[in-house]
């Protein structure tokens, strides 16, 4: 988001190559950096801190020395692994023996789905996508929970009808509302939430998941409103 110039060494001429407008600068992605004290020893900012410090101070000689120290440590570690027969096992990358190239293990090359994908984030070096829909595991668990409640209500209604049939009601009792009620049709019920079912609340796991989804939904609506304001 800054100016870029081309310097012609032969004749000393300088040419503007890139000069971003204020609109381009406003569209810059927000940069997220892991706090220095939370970084591991081999993360770039911590690993190269002495080289970076020397470069910022304009001490190219010191920067070269620090770089040499790091490279020697890596060579020694590789030599020790080779001598001990220890294989190097990368955490985040895999080697393609056919193309002799390294590939990120968790790359997600599918197109972005604006109707389902909410945000993409990195955690412990692994890129993940937050999605709108319930996971298959939670969906199956929720369905099982709902079906068990429907079964209990059907059994309760069946027992209720059996009691009414076995009784010999008087004229007075026929004009009085029964203490039992027939459950609503299953097709008319919504399975979006335990509160909508008219049943007892869902299990704690389902309830916790539904609350989490409501929070995500509220966040999505807020983001959509912000996007609309930006477009306007």
Automatic annotation (TrEMBL):
<feature type="compositionally biased region" description="Basic residues">
    <location>
        <begin position="151"/>
        <end position="164"/>
    </location>
</feature>
<protein>
    <submittedName>
        <fullName>OSBL5 protein</fullName>
    </submittedName>
</protein>
<feature type="region of interest" description="Disordered">
    <location>
        <begin position="150"/>
        <end position="189"/>
    </location>
</feature>
<dbReference type="Pfam" id="PF01237">
    <property type="entry name" value="Oxysterol_BP"/>
</dbReference>
<dbReference type="InterPro" id="IPR037239">
    <property type="entry name" value="OSBP_sf"/>
</dbReference>
<dbReference type="InterPro" id="IPR000648">
    <property type="entry name" value="Oxysterol-bd"/>
</dbReference>
<dbReference type="GO" id="GO:0008289">
    <property type="term" value="F:lipid binding"/>
</dbReference>
<feature type="compositionally biased region" description="Polar residues">
    <location>
        <begin position="167"/>
        <end position="188"/>
    </location>
</feature>
């Amino acid at each position: 988001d800054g100016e870029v110039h081309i310097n012609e060494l032969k004749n000393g001429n300088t040419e503007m190559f890139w000069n971003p407008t204020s609109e381009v600068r406003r569209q810059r992605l927000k940069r997220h950096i892991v706090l220095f004290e939370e970084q591991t020893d081999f993360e770039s900012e911590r690993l190269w801190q002495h080289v970076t410090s020397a470069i910022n101070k304009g001490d190219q000689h010191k920067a070269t020395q620090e770089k040499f120290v790091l490279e020697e440590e890596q060579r020694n570690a590789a030599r020790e692994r080779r001598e001990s027969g220890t294989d190097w096992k990368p955490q985040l990358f895999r080697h393609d023996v056919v193309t002799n190239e390294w590939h990120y293990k968790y790359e997600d090359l599918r197109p972005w789905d604006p109707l389902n994908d909410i945000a993409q984030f990195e955690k412990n070096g692994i890129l993940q996508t937050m999605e709108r829909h319930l996971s298959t595991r939670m969906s199956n668990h929720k369905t099982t929970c709902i079906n068990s409640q429907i079964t209990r209500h059907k059994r309760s209604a069946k027992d209720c009808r059996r009691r009414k049939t076995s009784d010999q009601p008087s004229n007075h009792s026929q004009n009085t509302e029964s203490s039992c009620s027939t459950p609503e049709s299953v097709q008319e019920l919504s399975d979006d939430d335990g509160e909508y079912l008219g049943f007892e609340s869902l299990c704690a796991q389902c309830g916790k998941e539904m609350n989490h989804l409501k929070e995500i939904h509220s966040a999505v609506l807020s983001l959509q409103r912000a996007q609309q304001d930006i477009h306007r």
